[in-house]
Fold this protein.
Amino acid sequence: MAAGLGPRICEGQCAVLKRGDVFKAVAVLRRRKIIFEKQWFYLDNAIGHVYGTTFEVTSGGNLQPRQEVEETTTDTKEAGTDNRNIVDDGKSQKLTHDDIKALKDKGIKGQEIVQQLIENSTTFRDKTEFAQDKYIKKKKKKYEAVITIVKPSTRILSTMYYAREPGKINHLRYDTLAQMLTLGNIRAGNKMIVVETCAGLVLGAVMERMGGYGSIIQMYPGGGPVRAATSCFGFPKHFFNNLHEFPLSKVDSLLSGTFSTEMLPSEFEDNALVEEESNGLIDEKQASIQETEEESITATAMEVNQTEEQETMDINAEDVEFKDNKEKDNKENVREKQRKQWERRKKLIEAAALLRDKNADGLIVASKFHPTPLLLSLLEFVAPSRPFVVYCQYKEPLLECYTKLRERGGVINLKLSETWLRNYQVLPDRSHPKLTMSGGGGYLLSGITVVLDKGKSDSSNLEALKMEEPSSKRCKVQDLQC
């Protein structure tokens, strides 16, 4: 990549290390030791370079931009017709492990070590051209300490999580995530409701697609939302201005109309009491300190040695200063907790106001919980003619959800789908599907909301049952009447 093109690597941001098909997200910090694929290095020299630059790990763990060298094909021109006469007896390589280790200790680069391995192999020239390329690729992966630093994105982070820790994202495959964003019609300016327990990956994907425009309400279980993967995206601060959060435990009260600011946990009142108690304790401590000071002063006055008196006074003064500093720190901690709790309460009230409008532009659910109760309650906040998408690792919960939605009504175009993914190797004269493929990427239930007329729902259900009666029976009744 030419200099000056694209964003650059900056200190404090998040970047993704890539080596082959392996990814790892790290924070770019100076003098921080990074261990990746059995290599350790520092990212100091990478700061200022363009994302996508390939680096080579040198001695001392320093990174150096790799210079593109044209590979000579003089050694690979001579090749055999087939590999039938090649015997893998372990004696074809003349270089031993000690020789290779000695080359590494001398500081010889991986590319030169690979070249020496080719020259000292007795069977390399007898292999076919394809086998030679495979041999070179394998040795480069083993001996060349090369990494590429790329900018985080939905595709890269979803691939990384699915390969390294699929359990944290409920085995949500990257192509399934792409289908969710498409079916949910995620775009800038939307007002989206997101329910996910995928470490914040789905939330980050929605935020990236919306580009900081619109509003997102994240519904979370437990004490607070988990956004480990969201922080890896490295979004600017203004992306989080329109990100709201609301606990799932308060959804029923919001729907029933009993939700109010008075029913929120009065954390600020508790903190006020804590502060008052702490102030009372501080006063008592100050009084006790003064008493001990007076006692120590009278005791030292009775003593004759002035040096000992000075030493005890210094010690008492240090104790008083230490206690004063500790009291100040306690007060600051209480105030900081109060400020955070007021901010959290304010955001909660704002999220409740957005949900009360019941005009959300879409609903995304990717949770480890059963989707039926979540979807039936959260669809009340979605405006008509808006899409919704539900992800689940298994098919059976979505089948139950599908049935409940058909009985309830208010939705159309219900679809239960599963994406099928298979990777292909695309090379000259040897393009074919790869032998290993993913067994499953989960299931998606999607649909579109419509106005639900509750008054006519019962009569329409009765008419539907009458219409489902077989026509032959009605004919028999008419014959009897005639």
